[in-house]
């Protein structure tokens, strides 16, 4: 998209604030201009979504329940806000988001939809409790974000009484407030309400055959992750180009985990027992930023961008970093998350079995 790099640049240069605090006590992040911690550039190309039938999707709430938005099509306008716990522009917008819920929560369905990249239910629940958020909170399994072709958060989606998208954008403020007033003032339609099918991807379980996946290299060339038997076991490191930089003040433990796992995978790759690939999250990331990451970090394994988020969805990756181990027959053996400490033993076991 035209300002893709502007969005990423504005986010990555942010000054990071404290995690702690309630919605009313979150640090006051300046957000008025590029370079401010809470600023995110608007993307005019998101206008492509306006007029599309709303997504046919049921969201998963952080308490394990389901949030059905389709049932409200034609009954109430709907406001979906996609966000992440560590996203500074998201945090900067939280106080205003709470005010919107307080003012309009009885007139429109409002759901805070965590993007599901770099987060998991426990982490989101802790943030919601600390911030005292009162609106319903869901976690996307990647289906909604993929359908929207979301590349950055926060991401606001307003659906009118006609069941169609009325607004899509990154910024809050007067323009967004006016969009809310328009959808609240819109008239119900007598026509049949259409919806758009949203494809879901079931997360792999141990023993499942890993599908083929299309990724992008640092030079933007296609990288194909093969399906089926390859004759050798494989390891996939899931991380993000911003994991060891953007999170340094908000989540130092995640920064350390990403650094430690990257270095450990580098060491393991030199033993030659597994074929390795590093896959970075698509949010705030392009092949160009992957190239910059490789220049800084000098990983010893080939790297690729999960351009459409399908690889993260297929493996069910939430918190970072994670490592997927795949047998020579192409079936998933295990996924190790940031709290697992037996990566070396797990790799050695897989190599011996092969």
List keywords for this structure.
five-stranded mixed β-sheet, alpha/beta, 9 helices, 19% strand, Glutaredoxin, 354 residues, disordered N terminus, seven-stranded mixed β-sheet
Describe this structure in words.
The chain has 354 residues and is an alpha/beta fold. The chain has two domains: 194 residues, Glutaredoxin (3-Layer(aba) Sandwich); 141 residues, 3-Layer(aba) Sandwich (Glutaredoxin), CATH 3.40.30.10. The protein has nine helices and 16 strands. It has a seven-stranded mixed β-sheet with strand order 3-2-6-5-4-7-8, covered by helices on one side. Strands 14-13-12-15-16 form a five-stranded mixed β-sheet. Strand 2 and strand 3 form a beta hairpin. It is globular and about 65 Å long.
Corresponding CATH architecture of the largest domain? 3-Layer(aba) Sandwich
For the largest beta-sheet, the strand count, sense and barrel status come to: 7 strands, mixed
Radius of gyration: 21 Å
Share in β-strands = 15-25%
Q: Number of DSSP strands? A: 16
What is the straight-line distance between the termini? 44 Å
Can you tell me the CATH topology of the largest domain?
Glutaredoxin
Output the CATH class name of the largest domain.
Answer: Alpha Beta
Overall outline: globular
Mean pLDDT across residues: 91
CATH superfamily of the largest domain: Glutaredoxin
